[in-house]
Write a structure and sequence with these properties.
By secondary structure, the protein is of the alpha+beta class. The protein is 23% helix and 23% strand. The chain has two helices and three strands.
Length: 74
């Protein structure tokens, strides 16, 4: 019974992980300083991991902020 409840909870919560938006990534160090001030990192959907991963190893303890990016059209 415990396994069934755990599996059901896992399956229901996995629906919230669907990624299908455009995102802006902001990389900060542990003090809140922007690590890449002259770069605007944008990604679509699951590509956020492709954009994020190269910056994990060079910087100690990076903080990544993902926001939904909505471009304005003129």
């Amino acid at each position: 019974m415990k396994k069934t409840t755990y599996l059901l909870g896992l399956l229901l919560s996995s629906g919230c992980i669907t990624i299908n938006e455009d995102y802006r990534l902001i990389a900060q160090d542990e003090n809140g300083k922007d690590l890449l001030p002259k770069m605007k990192l944008l990604a679509h959907g699951i590509g956020i991991y492709t954009v994020k991963n190269p910056y994990v190893h060079p910087f100690p303890k990076p903080l990544f902020i993902f926001t939904i990016f909505t471009p304005t059209r003129s």
